[in-house]
Specification:
This protein is an alpha/beta fold. The protein contains 13 helices and 12 strands.
Length: 344
Amino acid sequence: MIKRITAQDVAKAAGVSPTTVSFVLNNIEGMRISKETRDRVLEVAKSLNYHPDSSAQKMARGKTSVIGLVLRQNPEKAYADLFIQDVMQGISSVIRENGYQLLFIPLPPEDKESSYSKLINERHVDGLIVSGPTEDDYELVDAFREGAKIVLMGKIPGSNIPFIDIDNIKGAEIATSHLVSLGHKDIAIITNAPDNYDSSKDRFEGYRQVLKKNKITLNDEWVFWGDRTPESGYEAMSKLLSRKPLPSAVFIASDTVALGALNACYEKNIRVPDDLAIVGFDDIALSRYVIPPLTTVHLPAYSLGLGAASMLIQQLNDEFIESNEIILQTKLVIRESSGKNIKP
């Protein structure tokens, strides 16, 4: 009988972990893996003729062959959050080759029912990828403690649930620093989500730290908490534009939220970037096509989904996971909405 080559075989021969093998072969963006390591893994995989065996992996752990993608949002907000589309493509690219299907599950944060336990105990899904967990989601922590296979996109402080995320503080620092470098000192913020989400608190913290570093006063009247939708951006920007004095720039910590904010500027005859410079976050596909094209922080959404799915498959197959905490890198994409250097 011919022995099937596994990811563990490739990892052992290359002198790396199975997680590294998965990330290299799936070409996950944002990982700090050296070119030497990547080349070695690819060469070993080729020499061993390694190919993922979806049927074997399915038989090894699959019960329903369904993986749930849970968004801790109301359905209308979940479907409005445009960056999730790229995340889903990344997840699907991994789970399909492993014999699984994807079930999309919007789950309102206020839903206090045992939704996770029902999903798993009633065998609707074999594992869960949870995007945007709230910091007080104790039912999710309990489900993992009881043996559920779970990976987070985002994190719950103090829990040991494996997660993949971006450096939200660093990304917000990049965005705010760009506005400071252009000469702005009056900088407002509209966050991506309410303050019970770890990502929104981190993006606010990155903004706050840059202001402090540059000895710029944080004006509480210019702080607004978005809610992942264009409508929340429209409402926040409308309130901001009704206040005096106005800021010269706004960091909007979600491109989806920024779409509504841009519309509010248009209705109020506020020219972007001449009257108000704007920087977003996420780099969704639409951000380059709005008027003006949106300067934004690129979030590797496809790689985020791909990485989360890879970690979950390893859990389902009882494979060794090198790290339960993976942070992907972000970068600034400069377009027209942030404008040029302002006059002293």
